[in-house]
Design a protein that fits this description.
Largest sheet: 8 strands, antiparallel, barrel
Structural class: alpha+beta
Shape: rod-shaped
Oligomer: single chain
Strand order of the largest sheet: 1-2-3-4-5-6-7-8
Length: 503
């Protein structure tokens, strides 16, 4: 009903103005309005650079205001032209005809102006419909009756009114917006009204790289912004937030977002499948499946994966590692993110996780590393030695004190302790007064997959159906061969296997 009232008022107002302006000025204004509407987008593009300088920095205004400004500029130009033409015609009839002819022309000019004014009012109705319909398409998805912003609420109400009266069929035929405008509006409406698909949006391959930018990273971690979005707060309230403005005022970031394939993004949000990127199956985010990884590594021969390393890796993954994800971006980057329950203990455990043959032989050469307390001999691995590697080692001061107690049998309590003290004291006879301290063999610095246990960056490449990705940290690099099987990524290096699930 509102649209009919607005339309009737515009027709009547146009007829009244046309009567007083005359047919000449109204005709020129009508032609000028049609030309300005057709050329508004082109002229607006020439003057779009001044939009931010007058305070409208949001990219939404960058889309809507330039055509409107172009229309106003052309409208003013044709208004001036209509005044000049009317003055010349009136001067001709006033100076070159008698009073009777001039009076007839004046009456004809006024009545013709009223008729053309009614037509001009109808044109203005369609133009107002276009101006309301283009942003109103977005407003109807993001604004409701409780929306605090008056322009958004008005645009939404006008759009609903046009749909009810059928005026939208005329407006849609002449509206200047392209397909991407409506696709973006559909995407924003889908995300705004369905908080459950936010995780899917974050997993869209092109967004993985964008998420590492400071503005996006801070936005994602801000609890206030998340609360506004999850609670579906008003659009004006969301856009006024400082974090949102930091994104919208970053022109480089906005241009990257505008360069996305919105058709593919919309299809991905609805179906979970990206037609554009589905051939690169590694793209996306993957979370480590600890149980599957341990089961895969357990089947590997001990020549490739020593038992001690397997036990310590299992402890690191189960006890200390809370979450490990890898994201593969469209620009061939690999982004590793690790959330550790106890980062210090995780690093200590991973640092001891490579119990290679050299470490085992060093322990055997140390003599007492495998026996000590009378357990069966040799340098082979025992339950005590495995536990010693799995549990954080005592400090050097504690180790030295324990060594002295063992040498002198302090606290042993018995003949066995005395015999042990006597046997251990034999090497001291040849000393020069300085107590020698036996150094335990140093364990290897890290497991081959150690760089994956902390957050870092890397790269990935593809060869046929197989993939390879590498991650480096502190000068150490690990390269893993990977293959994608359904929704799982299986990565291997030297017999060590990690299984990731797509998220």
């Amino acid at each position: 009903m509102t649209i009919w009232i607005v339309g009737a008022l515009l027709v009547v107002l146009g007829a009244v103005l046309g009567y007083f302006l005359g047919g000449v000025r109204t005709a020129v204004s009508l032609v000028g309005t049609l030309i300005a509407a057709a050329a508004a987008t082109a002229v607006g593009g020439l003057v779009s650079g001044i939009i931010p300088s007058i305070g409208f920095r949001n990219p939404v205004w960058q889309f809507y205001l330039p055509p409107l400004l172009g229309f106003l500029i052309l409208g003013v130009v044709f208004l001036i032209v209509s005044l000049v033409v009317h003055h010349l015609v009136q001067k001709h009839y006033r100076n070159n005809t008698d009073e009777y002819t001039f009076a007839r022309w004046f009456r004809l000019n006024s009545r013709t102006g009223a008729a053309l004014g009614a037509v001009l009012g109808s044109v203005w109705l369609v133009l107002i419909g276009i101006v309301a319909y283009v942003p109103g398409y977005l407003a109807t998805q993001l604004a409701d009756s409780e929306e605090g912003s008056m322009p958004l609420r008005t645009a939404s109400n006008l759009t609903h009114g046009m749909e009810q009266t059928g005026l939208n069929r005329i407006v849609e035929h002449y509206q200047p917006a392209g397909e991407d405008h409506y696709r973006v509006a559909d995407i924003l409406g889908l995300v705004y009204n369905n908080p459950s698909i936010h995780s899917r949006l974050a997993s869209y391959p092109p967004f993985l790289g964008l998420a590492e930018k400071p503005e996006i990273a801070e936005l994602a971690k801000d609890p206030e912004v998340n609360t506004l979005i999850q609670s579906k707060a008003g659009l004006a309230q969301i856009l006024e937030h400082a974090r949102i403005q930091a994104v919208t005022e970053n022109h480089d970031l906005v241009n990257e977002l505008l360069a996305l394939d919105f058709k593919d993004l919309g299809d991905y949000l609805r179906t979970g499948i990206s037609e554009k990127y589905k051939e690169e199956r590694i793209l996306g985010r993957w979370r480590l499946n600890v149980r599957r990884s341990i089961a895969e590594m357990k089947t590997v021969s001990s020549e490739k994966l020593p038992t001690v390393e397997f036990n310590l890796l299992r402890k690191a993954l189960n006890v200390y590692l809370d979450d490990l994800t890898i994201g593969f971006t469209t620009d061939n980057k690999a982004i590793v993110k690790v959330k550790a329950k106890d980062e210090q203990k995780l690093l200590q455990t991973v640092g001891r996780a490579s119990a290679s043959a050299s470490a085992q032989s060093g322990a055997a050469g140390g003599g007492e590393a495998g026996g000590g307390g009378g357990s069966g001999g040799g340098g082979g691995l025992t339950a005590r030695s495995i536990a010693a590697r799995a549990v954080p080692q005592p400090s050097p001061q504690d180790s030295q004190a324990e060594l002295l107690r063992q040498r002198y049998g302090v606290g042993s309590g018995g003949g066995r302790g005395g015999a042990q003290a006597q046997s251990l004291a034999q090497p001291l006879a040849n000393t020069t007064g300085v107590m020698p301290v036996r150094q335990a063999p140093k364990p290897p610095t890290s497991t081959p997959i150690g760089p994956l246990m902390t957050s870092g960056d890397g790269s990935w490449s593809k060869a046929g159906e197989a993939y390879q990705f590498s991650v480096s940290r502190d000068g150490k690099e690990v390269k893993l061969d990977a293959r994608v099987k359904e929704n799982q990524l299986i990565a291997t290096v030297d017999g060590r296997t990690l299984v990731f699930d797509r998220i």
